[in-house]
Specification:
single chain, 97 residues, mainly alpha, 3 helices
Length: 97
């Protein structure tokens, strides 16, 4: 099981998007490392599911989440949730003093 996870994890690389214009802040895309797109697709699906799992595990409301394929939007929802938690924690600490 671990060897399969490693295989899927190694099946993608981050590359610069040739379609990105020089005025953009640099865009990156995931590309398969080999001609085996099946491992890439499985690895991408595992990544999408892991992001959803982490979001739910830490307490991001499900209503704030997007479909699993919208990884960046879900990561943004996670970031906003964590920032809100930090602010609430800071407020509690200040009130205790």
């Amino acid at each position: 099981a671990v060897s399969q996870r490693i295989l899927h994890a190694k099946s993608a690389v981050i590359a610069e998007d040739d379609a990105a214009t020089s005025s953009s802040n640099g865009r990156y895309i995931l590309l398969p490392t080999t001609g085996d797109s099946e491992h890439f697709a499985i690895g991408l699906q595992l990544l999408q599911n892991n992001i959803i799992f982490v979001c739910i595990r830490v307490g991001v409301p499900v209503s704030d989440l997007w479909p699993a394929g919208a990884m960046l939007l879900n990561l943004q929802a996670l970031k906003k949730f964590c920032q809100l938690q930090v602010l609430e924690c800071d407020d509690e600490v200040l009130q205790d003093h």
